[in-house]
Amino acid sequence: MESIGKWISTIHRYAHMYFAQESEGLGICGGQFMFLKFLYHQDGVSQEYISKQLLIDKGTTARAIQNLEKLGYVIRKKSQTDRRQNVVFLTEKAHGIKAEVMDKFSRWTEILTKDFSQEETEIILQLLHKMAHNAMEHIQQKENCNR
Questions:
Q1: Per the database record, which ranges form the HTH marR-type domain (predicted)?
Q2: What are phi and psi of 117, to 5 degrees?
Q3: Domain assignment of residue 133, given as a range
C-alpha cells in the first residue's frame, strides 16, 4: 500500500515553500502566516492557547509571535488574570494586510484543488478531517497510557 503520510508530508513541504514565496513582500516568514490567520479569527488570546490550538510547541509559538511583534503585526500584553501569560493582539498594520493574507490561504486551497469537482473537494475535506481525528485520537490514547 502506498504511504498516505508521504503525500501529506509532501503537501506540507510545498505549503511551506508557497507561503515563503508569498511572504516576501510582507517581511514575514512563511511559517508566521498561520499565526496571523489564527489571530484574525481569535484575537486577544494567550500564546499558550495559540500553541494548543495550532498543535505547535510553546517555543516555536513564542519565536513566531516575537518576530511578528518586531515587524509591528502584533503586540503582547501581560494577561490581567494570569501575569505569567502573554496575550497577543493584532495591530492596525496586521489588520491592513488581512485581505492579502486570507487571499493567500484561499489561493493555496485553489492550487491544491485545481481540477477537482465540488464533490471531490468535499470528499477530500471529509477524509482529511477524519484522518486528523484518527491521528489525534491515537496520540491522546498513547499519552494517556504513558501517564
A1: 1-133
A2: -75, 165
A3: 117-147
